[in-house]
Amino acid sequence: MITCVVEYVIDPSEIEAFERFGNRWMRLVARHGGTHHGYFLPAEGASDKALALFSFPSLAAYERYRTLFGNDPEFIEADRIRDDSGCVLRYERTFMRPLLPEPPREGTGDR
Fold this sequence. Notes:
Blueprint: E1 2-10, H1 15-31, E2 35-40, E3 49-56, H2 59-66, H3 73-85, E4 88-96
Antiparallel strand pairs: 1-3, 1-4, 2-3
Organism: Streptomyces similanensis
Pfam families: NIPSNAP
Protein name: NIPSNAP family protein
């Protein structure tokens, strides 16, 4: 599994547009084989930082999804929300592999 972590610098005055943008991308990731873990928006502290995390079973699966950028009408429309509103000032994408908790083993007392 590979997880993409996207760190955004956003325009705080365009938070509603960013939420529309995020909702659209969450649906697209799910529709094309990924698992979206959500967008994390400013609550306290810096008002211009946001994160998104989503996973694909492999880098190859993610790359298949990426082939739709700039080609598929739904992907173009999702990007248009960002471009027309200016809600995203910049972003940086990092790929990570998750270390997830192991389920407890029966009879060992592990929790």
